[in-house]
């Protein structure tokens, strides 16, 4: 099965050769390397061209006519020939067996549309600095859509036909384009992560997510609002099916769960998790932008509803505590 590895390259890209070498060293033999230049420096462009000429990999190189990662990625996937698309950023590295293991999972499960991996975080000097704990199952990934992006973008392999079916990356979500794409593609099949760490994810001061951290959080919120119907119907619906609870799914404003869901939250194995998660939702409500009280705006109300659904007793106590606090935080989350 042909896998097209799409790598957008921007600016100086000091680790790009290391990233390209990790693609060339894959033990999966059927690979196409697709490189998209997005306002790349002349020095980097020459280095990449020299590498490709000396490599045995099949490759395509295009220059994006529009600035930004969304335009570059849509162009890259558009010119790819692979049935599967693998993502890698120009500062990250693939483990040698990554594409082989991910391709095998797609061959086993025809309903699979997106497959990520765990990532090992590395510094600018290649020191190991951390390890991810992304959810593994389809149900857990969908549940986490409600409050975060549960799949690492540079670790994924996804089906090209489903990508094109949903319209690819969307311009409004640039900066959280992957989060938006996962939610939409997950409506057409299974999304999950492998338990193995097969991607080395570089964390440095050059990263967009580091430079614009507050903007990143805001964009994630915009994506959740834009996809709220899909998130709630998918994540809550999957959770109910997992618990074998028969309950209709309706828009969140009218969401009424059967008593069985509340009973399920009382299970000892889940109780602490629900309490912690409900507390997190209430804290998000409290910190919502321009909120003068926990009920200050729509985002606050949504977070409060989620908190009560997960742990009604715990949420009631926290709400009462909130009203005794005179000053509320008003910074963006």
Question: How would you describe what is shown here?
Answer:
By secondary structure, the chain is an alpha/beta fold. The chain has two domains: 3-225, Alpha-Beta Complex (Spore Coat Polysaccharide Biosynthesis Protein SpsA, Chain A); 265-333, no CATH class. It has 14 helices and nine strands. Strands 1, 2, 3, 4, 5, 6, 7, 8 and 9 form a nine-stranded mixed β-sheet that branches. Helix 2 (42-54) links the parallel strand 2 and strand 3 (58-63). Helix 12 (268-287) packs antiparallel against helix 13. It is globular and about 60 Å long.
Mean pLDDT: 79
CATH superfamily of the largest domain: Spore Coat Polysaccharide Biosynthesis Protein SpsA, Chain A
Overall number of domains: 2
User: For the terminal residues, how far apart are their CA atoms?
Assistant: 42 Å
- Order of helix and strand elements from N to C terminus: EHEHEHEEHEEHEHHEHHHHHHH
Number of helices: 14
Q: What would CATH call the class of the largest domain?
A: Alpha Beta
The helix content, as a percent range, equals 40-55%
Query: In terms of per-residue confidence, which ranges show pLDDT below 50 for 5 or more consecutive residues?
Result: 244-270, 289-295, 321-333
Radius of gyration, Cα only, in angstroms? 21 Å
Shape: globular
How many strand elements? 9
SS class: alpha/beta
CATH architecture label of the largest domain = Alpha-Beta Complex
Strand content: 15-25%
- What is the fold-level CATH name, i.e. the topology of the largest domain? Spore Coat Polysaccharide Biosynthesis Protein SpsA, Chain A
Main sheet, how many strands, which sense, barrel? 9 strands, mixed
